[in-house]
Amino acid sequence: MKTILHKADTRGHANHGWLDSYHTFSFAGYHDPQRVHFGALRVLNDDTVAGGMGFGAHPHDNMEIISIPTSGDLEHKDNMGNKQVIKQGDVQVMSAGTGIQHGEKNKNNDKEVKFFQIWVFPNKKNVEPRYDQKYFSDIDKHNKLLTVVSPLGTDDGGVQIHQDAWFSLGKLDKGFATDYQLKDKNNGVYAFVIEGDVTINGEKLNRRDGLAITEAGELKINADSNAELLLMEVPV
């Protein structure tokens, strides 16, 4: 097993006033040649958007874009005719494919919206653009690692992306222990602690820490406090 630990305070950071963003991997004005991507995982941004503010319409192509809100309401609008609000518990995916224009903004003027924006390189280029979102309750994620993103979509319980990648979310009680078996032994896993403290294969992680894991077929996970954990299994 090989691991690379990314402590929360080593992430890139940009505060634009209306947008406060932490970058696990190189993004925009933050560039670290040692942290450009982890296999197919290209972007992991931890964003806070002020009330009423947001990203104007802008293009993407040939990227799988996943948004996971943790608080507030994020309004999405795109040129495919989708206009949706995503909130805590929702997982949204947008396959940009041949090209898409979309914008996102905080639906509320009186409170922030916080969300993770994650980009994954696709395994197929120039697919027809596609949008999907699904709600997962805290009960569904309680003391388990629930599949929320997968290549099979609803057949595997999550939203679908064009990549042999699986994302799992868990809300774990202090003292809970579990194993995660990789779907593909050639994949790696990027573990990101949303809240709390966990130990993965002997490595202690705290809030917003990330751990890149390769050459491991199984992860042993222990919750050292009440914790929320995101696992992203991707080709490396």
In whole angstroms, the N-to-C terminal distance is: 14 Å
Strand content: over 45%
CATH class: Mainly Beta
- The helix tally amounts to 1
Mean pLDDT: 96
The number of E-state strands comes to: 22
Strand order of the largest sheet: 1-20-17-22-15-13-14
Give the tally of structural domains: 1
CATH architecture: Sandwich
* Helical content band: under 10%
The dominant shape is: globular
- Low-confidence runs of at least 5 consecutive residues: none
Task: Name the structural class.
Answer: mainly beta
CATH topology: Jelly Rolls
H/E order of the elements?
EEEEEEEEEEEEHEEEEEEEEEE
Radius of gyration: 17 Å
Biggest beta sheet summary: 7 strands, mixed
CATH superfamily: Jelly Rolls
List the helices and strands and how they pair.
Blueprint (H helix, E strand, L loop, with lengths): L1 E5 L5 E4 L3 E5 L17 E9 L4 E7 L3 E8 L1 E6 L4 E5 L2 E6 L4 E7 L6 E8 L9 E6 L2 H4 L4 E5 L8 E2 L5 E7 L4 E5 L5 E9 L2 E3 L2 E3 L4 E5 L3 E6 L3 E9 L1
Parallel strand pairs: 13-14
Antiparallel strand pairs: 1-20, 2-3, 3-4, 4-11, 5-10, 6-9, 6-11, 7-8, 7-10, 9-12, 13-15, 15-22, 16-21, 17-20, 17-22, 18-19, 18-21
